[in-house]
Amino acid sequence: MFWVINISSKKRVKNQNSNFKKYFLKRVANAFTMYYNSNCKGRLTQLLKSCRSYKDKASCRIQHPVIYAGCFRFVKRIKIMTWRIVHVCQSERMQLKLDNLLIKKMGEDYVIPLSDISIIVAEGGETVVTLRLLSALSKYNIALIVCDNEHLPTGIYHSQNGHFRAYKKLQEQLLWTQEQKDKLWQIVTYFKINNQQDVLSMFEKNIDCIQLLADYKDHIEFGDKTNREGHAAKVYFNELFGKKFVRLTQQETDVINAGLNYGYAIMRAQMARIIAGYGLNPLIGIFHKNEYNQFNLVDDLMEPFRQIIDVWVYQNLLDEEYLKYEFRLALTDTLNAKIRYGKETCSVTVAMDKYVKGFLKCISDKDTSKFYCPIVSSVEWS
What we know:
The protein is an alpha+beta fold. 44% of the residues lie in helices and 19% in strands. The relative contact order is 0.10.
């Protein structure tokens, strides 16, 4: 399928210098979605070089195969991020159609471009998913979350080695020293307890518990050898949901645990696909070392984001008996909530991406200037 795209500019730009170049590149980035193949970028580069001037480039009418790409597309270092989370309930079939997701349900067809999708959540035991679609999901770095009959996420399908320098990234990851890991885990634990303290302050909980978390936060050792994280979690959950609350992860015992498990699974899947997009192996964590866990690094890095789910569950499920369909949709949509990260407000998904990028810069260059704690008290639901 060929689309004719006109990127002609109606504005006159006086100086055809670097400012115009940036303007033009943004127009190109908006006009083109690239196929997940470096050859396509090469074809576009050759096409642009064939134009004699920036004016010719900006006014040319280009006939080019537009094929939707994966999670990130780069045109001269212009970065585009996927944003859509698709929740599929009781459909008959999901398949690939011209680089789009085709969902068949009750005689209706729903078509969504794969380039827009970051996560697909699938419920319903009768849904058929084709192999061609699964292959395309891995190329586009789209995570597929599968739920059981209790509507609880039980599996995550995500791309493996999707980075173009996967081996080099793995080598770098294997060279992380224990000292580096311990320092990063100390920072991540600080972020987590800080957000737990923030949540208790939001809901005006017992001041003694808040102060105790502050004390735990200020006495975290390298690698958290004294397990301040575990002690803080017990104080936090008992104060937030009551003394009788017991955190359970393997079964749906009550609506609170069901909501937490569902929301955490969504966060986990998003973090897994972002980590894979940066070429990291999720097996190799900085603290978690479970031989049966394929997402050790994911479980490490997602800790400061769990409190987003805690806040939503506290605000919406305390008086409920079941995790209804509308609640599951809302929990899925928490990734689109706005949150303060560093000096800007962005979606939770964007904050997670910046967070992983800051983590990499911190562990490779020992530069913590871009590694921030997401401010949970600033969250605004979409």
